[in-house]
Automatic annotation (TrEMBL):
Chain ranges passing through the membrane: none
Family: Belongs to the UDP-glycosyltransferase family.
Keyword flag Manganese: no
Protein name according to UniProt: UDP-glycosyltransferases domain-containing protein
UniProt KW keywords: Glycosyltransferase, Transferase
Organism from which the protein derives: Miscanthus lutarioriparius
Length: 343
């Protein structure tokens, strides 16, 4: 993040802090060294820049009493803190067991090479290897692109263990008992204090990290029958191959259903100019947009199906709106989320 002036909405202040780089991490590259260098810079600069921010707030008469930090930021626990787990409790339980005696069990099943092999972990329903977070299977290999992420999760659970040795660590989870009562019970009450505070959902008027297009897609939705529209979106981070960008709208078009497909600007960038023009021209029974307000779209009565990458925020938004999902998991814990949806 770049340094800059804080933003306010009347209740919250947003203070940027430095990640130790001039331009951040652009993503979309297969360069492992570049990714690892960025993560190393972030871990080195993060404690210093956040510490400076905390000191500055204290000097203004606004001392920080607790830091709530999310995944990939274990260094933040140096201040009075509570981890905010933004994935399902099920995923947290899998990581917890992996780093507390079950790494060998998972590694052995993964080495066999059969994604349908079953892994049994205490308190959890049996899971196939393909349903596990990839950071605990593929990314344990030091040569894997996301190996640094695996190491960061390891550091995160080491941090929780150190906190628990003095007093029980607090973990806020974006879920609720009605969705995950079994997973909540799978982590022993003496390990950490799990506090379900979810589902945490957007209000629909929050600022997006992407530029908002005009809302013609909402006007278009109002002209469609109830439960008729297929909505397709793979989130704010997942990248798509050129063939996927070209074929996804074409495939939904052939279904004969009205559809709304999100293809982000960075994914469109790989297309030639004429191909990008054709992307919109081929949409005879639907719309292809660069961005949309997902909370508003999913709550619209015309939407009857959500084709999703199974990011946890998207899953919760769909559950809240009562829209059936078709899962196309891609990375991270999304396969685990898809299994949770299915159950």
């Amino acid at each position: 993040m770049a340094n800059g002036a804080p933003e306010e909405d009347g209740r919250l202040e947003f203070h940027p802090f430095s990640d130790g780089t001039e331009r951040g991490y652009a993503g979309g590259s297969d360069d492992v060294a570049e990714f690892n260098a960025y993560m190393a810079s972030f871990h080195a600069a993060g404690p210093r820049s956040v510490g400076q921010l905390v000191d500055a707030l204290a000097a203004r008469g606004r001392p920080v009493s607790r830091v709530v930090y999310t995944l990939m930021l274990p260094w933040a626990a140096g201040v009075a803190s509570a981890l905010y787990w933004i994935q399902p409790v099920l995923v947290s339980a899998i990581y917890h067991h992996y780093f507390h005696g079950y790494a060998g069990v998972i590694a052995e099943q993964y080495r066999r090479g059969d994604p349908s092999d079953v892994v049994e972990l205490p308190g959890l329903a049996p899971l196939a290897v393909r349903d596990l977070p990839i950071f605990l299977t593929e990314s344990t290999d030091p040569g894997d692109y996301f190996h640094t992420v695996f190491l960061t999760f390891r550091d995160l659970f080491d941090t929780l263990d150190r906190e628990t040795s003095n007093s029980k660590a607090t973990v806020l989870v974006n879920s609720c008992e009605e969705l995950e009562v079994g997973a909540l019970a799978a982590i022993g009450p003496h390990d950490v204090l799990l506090l379900p505070i979810g589902p945490v959902l957007p209000t629909g008027d929050e600022t997006s990290m992407f530029k908002q297009e005009d809302a013609t897609y909402m006007e278009w939705l109002y002209g469609k029958p109830a439960n008729s529209v297929v909505y397709v979106s793979f989130g704010s981070l997942a990248t798509m191959a050129r063939e996927q960008v070209e074929e996804l709208p074409a495939g939904v078009e052939e279904s004969g259903r009205p559809y709304l497909v999100v293809v982000r600007k960075d994914n469109r960038a790989m297309l030639a100019e004429e191909d990008e023009t054709e992307l919109g021209e081929r949409a005879k029974n639907g719309m292809v947009v660069e961005w949309c307000d997902q909370a508003h779209v999913l709550s619209h009565p015309a939407v009857g199906c959500f084709v999703t990458h199974c990011g946890w925020n998207s899953v919760l938004e769909s559950v809240a709106s009562g829209v059936p999902m078709l899962g196309v998991p891609k990375v991270s814990e999304q396969s685990t989320n898809a299994r949770l949806i299915e159950r």
